Recover the amino acids of this structure.
């Protein structure tokens, strides 16, 4: 392990500093608790109002936000995957209706966000990239849900659900995660990380 | 079989517990009727039920699974052609996903899982330590949450009022918690590096990570549960 990682500009080096690791992990844990909280709201709506049908996909966006925020704050390949997977694992450990299968969802959703960031070579962290991350996270999750959850549904229903899920991913996880990252950067709490550094430079050029 | 070796068989390590939750998922996709599903679920209870130690935790987790399965059954009935068999099958699939976790997850200890992930699966040790450290900070997050709410209340920004007001208040508290935890993380990372975390070559771990007969037993049960619905096919 080299000791000169902190002397190079953060965006040019793929190696992880301790603060990158810890920030990714803490984002995962904090959002894991939030996911657990949302799981009861989600189940309540799902059970009380089955008539919403495929529009239920609109409720899925919040599940994708940890990956987007992790990727946008830490800006390293793998940050989105780790943050999303850990968030899913934490919610599962506290206990949700999906048991340990949330791990599969977490990995798939995290990979979706990674793919969007990789598409821009981990160089661009604009709102459009975040939105693409949310859409791809929803699409990847659907690979698993297609047969495991919605086996009894018609293909039209599944596609409608996927559309709603992707829209929710783009708005809630994409725009929401991007806005949250900006707000965090503005607070000065993540000045040691690439996203915060950028904001700090803007504040005092 | 002595009492001691029986107790040892009932205490599988964290890796086989996670495998026991995840491997049977592969069987879910082969469940094609409610009858197959019910046979599969019975097999799960028979195979894994004897490992349960935290009955309350298991019942609570299974209960949310049942609620979800009921929800899926109703919407499958509504949108999948009003067929009771289809609805029952969809519900069984969900339960087949969730039931092993509700029996095994209460036995899982995060710090032990970290020890095994690093020593047995050789995942990157710094990443594993960071995740376990963040998990152990969960209690601190809960305390911070209360402190922030007290501070908001003292400033007249309490959580009284309608549901919308409460939701806004919770959102503001959550954001404040995120800011506080990020600051805390920065300080913690500096402290960890000061103790040589980034440059350590020989890392010590809290506990050894052995693979015991209990782990092999649980893993083979999990594989059987994954195969069962395909065999019933």
């Amino acid at each position: 392990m080299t000791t000169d990682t902190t002397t190079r500009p953060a965006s040019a080096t793929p190696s992880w500093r301790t603060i990158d690791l810890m920030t990714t992990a803490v984002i995962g844990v904090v959002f894991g608790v939030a996911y657990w909280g949302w799981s009861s709201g989600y189940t309540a709506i799902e059970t009380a109002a089955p008539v919403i049908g495929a529009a239920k996909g609109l409720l899925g966006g919040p599940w994708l936000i940890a990956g987007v925020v992790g990727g946008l704050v830490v800006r390293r390949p793998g940050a989105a995957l780790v943050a999303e997977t850990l968030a899913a694992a934490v919610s599962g450990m506290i206990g949700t209706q999906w048991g340990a299968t949330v791990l599969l969802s977490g990995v798939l959703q995290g990979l979706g966000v990674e793919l969007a960031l990789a598409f821009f070579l981990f160089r661009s962290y604009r709102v459009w990239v975040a939105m693409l991350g949310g859409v791809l996270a929803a699409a990847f999750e659907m690979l698993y849900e297609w047969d495991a959850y919605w086996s009894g549904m018609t293909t039209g229903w599944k596609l409608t659900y996927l559309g709603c899920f992707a829209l929710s991913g783009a708005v809630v996880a994409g725009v929401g995660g991007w806005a949250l990252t900006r707000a965090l950067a503005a607070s000065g709490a993540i000045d040691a990380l690439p996203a915060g550094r950028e904001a700090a430079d803007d504040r005092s050029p | 079989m002595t009492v001691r070796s029986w107790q040892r068989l009932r205490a599988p390590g964290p890796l086989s517990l996670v495998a026991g939750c995840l491997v049977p998922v592969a069987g879910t996709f082969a469940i094609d009727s409610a009858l197959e599903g019910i046979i599969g679920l019975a097999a799960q209870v028979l195979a894994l039920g004897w490992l349960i130690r935290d009955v309350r935790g298991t019942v609570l987790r299974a209960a949310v699974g049942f609620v979800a399965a009921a929800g899926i059954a109703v919407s499958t009935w509504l949108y999948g052609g009003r067929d009771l068999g289809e609805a029952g099958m969809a519900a069984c699939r969900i339960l087949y996903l969730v039931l092993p976790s509700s029996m095994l997850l209460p036995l899982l200890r995060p710090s032990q899982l970290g020890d095994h992930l690093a020593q047995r699966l050789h995942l990157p040790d710094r990443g594993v330590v960071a995740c376990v450290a963040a998990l152990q900070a969960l209690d601190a997050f809960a305390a911070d949450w209360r402190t922030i709410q007290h501070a908001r209340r003292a400033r007249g920004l309490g959580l009284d009022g309608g549901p919308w007001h409460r939701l806004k208040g919770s959102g503001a508290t959550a954001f404040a918690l995120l800011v506080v935890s990020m600051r805390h993380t920065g300080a913690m990372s500096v402290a960890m590096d000061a103790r040589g975390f980034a440059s350590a070559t020989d890392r010590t771990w809290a506990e050894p990570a052995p693979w015991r007969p209990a782990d092999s037993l649980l893993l083979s049960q999990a594989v059987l549960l994954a195969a069962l619905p395909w065999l019933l096919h």
The mean pLDDT of chain A is 88. Chain A touches chain B through 55 residues (CB under 8 Å). DSSP finds seven helices and no strands in chain A.
